[in-house]
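task queued by scheduler; priority normal; single chain, no ligands, no partner chains; default sampling; output format set to structure tokens
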Amino acid sequence: MNRVDLLLPARERFGGQRLGEELARRFGRADRTVEAADFAARAFDILPRGWPVAAATRQRDAGDAAHGAWLRADPVYVRPDINGARLLAYGRALSLSERDSAALLPALKPLFGDAGFPIDAPAPDRWYIALPRESRLPRFVSPEQALGEDMFQHLPEGDGAEGRRWRALLSEAQVVLHNHPHNAARAAAGLAPINSLWFWGAGALPDHVRSGYAGVYSDDEALTAFGAQAGIAAGALPPNWSAPAFEGAALFDLRAQRDLALIQRDWLQPLAQALDRGALARVAVLCADGERFELARSQRWRFWRKPLRSLLD
């Protein structure tokens, strides 16, 4: 393996957390540039251009995504408050099981089926709506973007018929879910209710997906699904650095991490040691705000460079 790229959250997420003495020297001597902040999206060359997450994950889940277009309709928990309603949980945070989808989907199928959009759930936390390939859709945002925010700010956008249609479908689905007795059973078990859906990731399966990486490791299902489409190694993020069994560049997505001390212990320090041994040619640290630090063994001779106390320096 000649190269490792680490995706980190935006630097301000670390606040005043400090780099250790040795890593402070390394980052001070690193090559530093500013790039466009969409490192994750640029990990893949997708044609036609776009980010059709629903089709990519559907292909991985069910193998039938080539037959049309797809829209994710994931179960979520929304809590009403004085100013509207906030998206508080989705995906794994809801502890969903096949029992949940088996209970709730039969109540939703007539609503979406009558509208011409069949709904199903090959995985408990990933629900899908099948669409005609030529469907015109409003703009949707991912649940990650809307988490903790007022959901009414992120409703399907557009003042035309399509925007109104999807907002109406969402409203009707919320009524069905709110009244469903299965949510009372979830509450009795100490689980959050499934009281809404989140539409996102619309599109058809790409004609081609390619990547300059030989492997991608992330808890972001979009990255691993597109990695599978590109035919490269793709899997969940491991707890710490260990060299994969393949040769070539690898991308590790640490954007969900907030503790810089743990990132240093579990990732940056072992990677620095691999650089010193000559096991790696370089390590690039790519922050979500666009800041890029490229570490290489030869930089140890840059004695005149000052250490970085933090990534914000």
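post-processing summary
- The chain has a mean pLDDT of 92.
- The first helix runs from residue 21 to 29.
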